[in-house]
Amino acid sequence: MSRIETIAPANVEELRQVVEAAIADRTPLEVVGGGTRHGIGHPGRNVTQIATRAFAGIIDYDPAELVITLGVGTPLAEVEALLASQGQMLAFDPFDFARLTGELSRRSTIGGVVASGFAGSRRVSAGSVRDHLLGFTAVSGNAEIFKAGGRVVKNVTGFDLPKLLTGSWGQLAVLTQLTLKVLPRPRTALTLQLSGLDDARALAVLMRAMRSQASVAAAAYIPDRSVGESQTLLRLEGFGASVEARAKLLSRVLDHFGEPQQVTAQMADALWSRIGCARIWDTDPQSETLWRFCVPATAALQIVAAIREQQGRCFVDWGGGLVWGHLPATSDASALRELAERAAGHVMLVSAPAAYRARVPALHPEPPGVAALSARVRAAFDATSILDPDRFVIRAE
Predict the structure, then answer these.
(1) Cβ atoms of residues 180 and 67 within 8 Å
(2) d(C-alpha 326, C-alpha 98), whole Å
(3) SS3 category, 39
(4) 129 near 112, Cβ under 8 Å?
(5) Is pLDDT at 156 greater than 60 in this prediction?
(6) Which of 57, 146, 246, 352 has the largest count of CB atoms under 10 Å?
(7) How far apart are CA 210 and CA 225, in angstroms?
(8) What's 3's domain CATH number?
């Protein structure tokens, strides 16, 4: 069983002292915001949690500058509500783990969004989380307070640390403050749907649409859920006249597959919301695993076919570049890793029963050269390896 103690430093200096004491005592630390991502990785870690709730709130926001600076403990919902009130948004579609797990009593924080690096459906058109992080303040695993980046996009001198820290899962440093680029919300959004396509034709639609001149904002495929036909979805965003013209263009480009139908705004919002947090189906945490395949879009069909062969369910996002697979907890993890590698991609275990997570690493194994580089980077930021070192490894008993 894991033993967990929680410390909530009130400011950056207190945080530095906590890390310094942990180094002296060799105490592993886990950074926790809303706690929605705690279940990813090995379940039996003996750690002291660093709660970031004191690092919450908006520090600076000038809508005209399209930049916001805020504490990492700020709830994601508050950030999105503030931006929406000014007609703006985080364009990468923040991934809300609380909605994925159904633990709506917990609150995803903006720090967790950046630390995990997961983006939603608009990733294919707006870029990833790391493309929108301009700067940050943090305390390294060596108990050093440092800053990187700034408030403008072209502010890179030497190493681009914001990109390095994004998706690092709190294993390089404890983030305390973030500066993010924001964008205006589109004035018009329209979703087109082709129903009843099989896997091959649906994925062909996604690739053809993404390669067209229609500037598709998001493209996804939901196979038959036993409650209706499959849904192949394409979202267009922008000014009204432009969206209308691009919708007509898509209809011509896809005429071989049928006539796309416009989805009502309410239904479209519900669909993209569920796709964006990977909650098309509810996962049984006691009997199912949830895998996240990142592969070239041309390989999506073979991933989908393999998941079906193993009696799994799946859906596709990012125009074919992201496949979410629900598979039985008896699934062979090594076979899934090999499947992803043959497709020139990688796969991550996002959710599974505790016994499964105890023997299967969440992250895809790195090639030897990359692993060696990662180890050197970790050593530079966290020489004593106290920042959650056992989260993504399986150690022999």
Answers:
(1) yes
(2) 18
(3) coil
(4) no
(5) no
(6) 352
(7) 24
(8) 3.30.465.10
